[in-house]
């Protein structure tokens, strides 16, 4: 039913045949036929496609996709080159500069992070145009719970960065002491003041990976 094209296919074997997902799939068919839904249906699973299960070193968990035209392309907080950086992403880059001295890039495409093993996952993978959280409670949460559960089972160290209440709701799933969980407020201007700034997420992630014998992430975007 869904072909990711890497080690996620084996890890998620049988998941797309479960009743909750078949119901979600029918809901999405109806939504894409009748409304403007983001991202494009062929980009829904880009986070998994760019970062294979056995390659994940860090996870950044967001809420749901950007809901304005041309923004969402299946990687949380990322936009394609040529698209204006949304305020949340601007704040992420400001925090990155404060933390590691990395200057903000000219664009907001985070594919370079994904290719290094940073899974850029939302808790809900689709959204209606102009309606944040409009696909909440339709089944995506069960799917992304399973993704997080599978990563939690991994023996190798993974850093989980959970931004915002929706992302933090996954924390109970993360029981493996081999991993590091870092939480913060959502980087949106509406909530960043409530505990996003100064989290040093990027340096803490790299320190943890290095201590555990893994190569750090190069957080620079070219």
**How many strands?**
6
Q: State the end-to-end distance.
A: 35 Å
Strand content: 5-15%
Widest sheet, order of strands: 3-2-5-6
Structural class: alpha/beta
Number of helices: 8
Major sheet summary line: 4 strands, parallel
Topology:
Layout: H1 8-11, H2 19-34, E1 37-38, H3 46-50, E2 58-62, H4 87-100, H5 111-115, E3 118-122, E4 127-128, H6 140-152, E5 159-163, H7 165-168, E6 180-184, H8 201-211
Parallel strand pairs: 2-3, 2-5, 5-6
Antiparallel strand pairs: 1-4
Q: How does this model look, in words?
A:
This protein has 222 residues and is an alpha/beta fold. The chain contains 8 helices and 6 strands. The chain has helices spanning 8-11, 19-34, 46-50, 87-100, 111-115, 140-152, 165-168, 201-211; strands at residues 37-38, 58-62, 118-122, 127-128, 159-163, 180-184. The strands form 2 sheets. It has a 4-stranded parallel beta sheet. It has a two-stranded antiparallel sheet with strand order 1-4. Strand 5, helix 7 and strand 6 form a beta-alpha-beta unit. The longest helix is centred in the first third of the chain and has 16 residues, at 19-34. It is globular, with a radius of gyration of 16 Å. The chain starts with 7 loop residues before the first helix and ends in an 11-residue tail after the last helix. The mean pLDDT is 96.
């Amino acid at each position: 039913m869904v072909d990711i094209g890497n080690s996620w296919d084996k890890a998620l074997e049988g998941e797309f045949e479960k009743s909750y997902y078949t119901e979600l799939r029918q809901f999405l068919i109806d939504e894409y036929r009748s409304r403007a839904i983001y991202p494009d249906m062929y980009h829904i699973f880009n986070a998994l496609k760019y970062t294979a299960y056995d390659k994940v070193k860090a996870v950044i968990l967001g809420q749901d996709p950007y809901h304005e035209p041309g923004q969402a392309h299946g990687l949380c907080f990322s936009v394609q080159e040529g698209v204006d950086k949304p305020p949340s992403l601007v704040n992420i880059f400001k925090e990155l500069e404060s933390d590691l001295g990395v200057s903000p890039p000219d664009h907001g495409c985070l594919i370079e992070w994904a290719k290094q093993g940073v899974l850029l996952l939302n808790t809900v993978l689709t959204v209606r145009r102009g309606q944040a959280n409009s696909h909440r409670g339709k089944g995506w949460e069960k799917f992304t719970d399973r993704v997080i559960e599978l990563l939690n089972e991994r023996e190798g160290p993974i850093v989980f960065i959970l931004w915002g209440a929706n992302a933090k709701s996954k924390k109970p799933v993360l029981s493996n002491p081999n991993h590091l969980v870092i939480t913060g407020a959502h980087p949106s201007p509406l909530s960043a003041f409530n505990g996003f700034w100064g989290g040093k997420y990027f340096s803490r992630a790299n320190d943890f990976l290095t201590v555990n014998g893994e190569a750090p992430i190069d957080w620079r975007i070219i």
